[in-house]
Design a protein that fits this description.
The protein contains 11 helices and 12 strands. The chain has about 325 residues and is of the alpha/beta class. It has a domain of about 210 residues: TIM Barrel, CATH 3.20.20. A 12-stranded mixed β-sheet has the order 7-8-9-6-5-4-3-2-1-10-11-12. It binds S-adenosylmethionine.
């Protein structure tokens, strides 16, 4: 096989792939999938586990090191733990993680642990049942808390909580800090991205003032956590509490972007905020050799855009987050 390393034309080394295993979800987060959304991908187009394993094996030979399973809600894809196990076993892959809304986590936590999933990110936008119902589209707070508890019991640590901050929950940041301190979770505050018009209506909140306030109040210092993602972390000096900030709008991190995204139907997206992509499903289903797949991956890297335009053209992207994989 021709070994081209995964370096794009801006010198960024791509070591991280976010793999969407389904575009379906049991929630309807108002900023993600709009209520009544009908554009789900046909099952016949979903990459099979064999296809995913084959493509990621080629990627791993070229330098891919980390894979995060995501969606839609990844725990809705049947036997997703088997897929995680197969990916974790690929030579070169050092880390398999998963992002989940945790509604199914209580019954899946042990299976994921056994399959070799190393790290979990759990979405939780509010600790108030009625706010969860309103923002996330269903009253699932109890299931999510039970899922988090199960994940701790089977030994996932640290568990990261992803909170998208918006008009409706900005007054809950301090409660979420207290909750995560108490439970030993890492909190990650995320700026709302303008993906589709529903997200644009939710009320963007700039995280920089919140960052400054938390830093002063808790005497936080810069901290580094493993994971390879875009969050910048602050922590207490005793290491008891860490909070990350994912700020694609107020302070974008495109210059250090190390990731690409593969959708459930095999489209490789080079940037969350742009349309550049390569159709790997067609390649996988038309007798393409591993050698040719490797060459196509190399060509795809050259298409990776320099940056997103969320600030300059917030109305540009009509693709919803569940379609690309969050
Ligand atoms: N269902 C899984 C979950 O809840 O983590 C994985 C997919 S979800 C799309 C991944 C993450 O993307 C979640 O933390 C979600 O809150 C976030 N997300 C979705 N739409 C977003 C938006 N418009 N802006 C910022 N974050 C968004």
């Amino acid at each position: 096989m021709t070994v081209t390393s995964l370096i794009d034309r801006y010198g960024r080394r791509i070591e991280y792939l976010r793999l969407s295993v389904t575009d379906r979800c049991d929630l309807r987060c108002a900023y993600c999938i709009p209520e009544g959304f009908k554009g789900f991908e046909e099952p016949a187009h979903w990459l099979t586990f064999d296809e995913v394993e084959r493509l990621l094996a080629v990627f791993a030979r070229l330098g891919l090191k980390r894979v995060r399973l995501t969606g839609g809600e990844p725990l809705l894809r049947r036997h997703v733990d088997d897929l995680a196990r197969r990916i974790a076993a690929l030579p070169g892959i050092e880390d398999v993680s998963l992002s989940t809304n945790a509604t199914q986590l209580a019954k899946m936590a042990q299976k994921l642990k056994d399959a070799g999933v190393t790290r979990l990110n759990v979405s939780l936008d509010s600790l108030r049942p009625e706010t969860v119902a309103r923002i996330n589209g269903r009253p699932v707070l109890d299931e999510v808390l039970a899922g988090l508890q199960a994940a701790s019991v089977v030994g996932f640590a640290p568990i990261k909580i992803n909170m998208v901050v918006m008009r409706d929950n900005v007054d809950e940041v301090d409660d979420m800090v207290a909750f995560c301190m108490d439970k030993g979770y890492v909190l990650r505050l995320i700026e709302l991205m303008p993906m589709g018009d529903t997200a644009r209506r939710m009320g963007y909140v700039d995280l920089q003032p919140i960052r400054q306030r938390l830093q002063a109040h808790f005497d936080l210092v810069d901290t580094v956590l493993p994971g390879g993602g875009p969050a910048r972390y602050l922590g207490t000096s005793d290491g008891r509490f860490t909070v990350g900030f994912i700020t694609p709008l107020s302070q974008h991190f495109c210059a250090t972007c190390n990731r690409v995204r593969l959708t459930v139907d095999g489209q490789l997206h080079l940037c969350l905020g742009q349309e550049d992509r390569v159709d790997f499903r067609s390649l996988l289903r038309s007798g393409t050799s591993d050698e040719e797949l490797a060459a196509a991956i190399g060509r795809a890297m050259a298409l990776k855009p320099e940056r997103h335009d969320f600030n300059e053209q917030p109305e540009k992207l009509i693709r919803f987050m569940n379609m690309t994989g969050g």
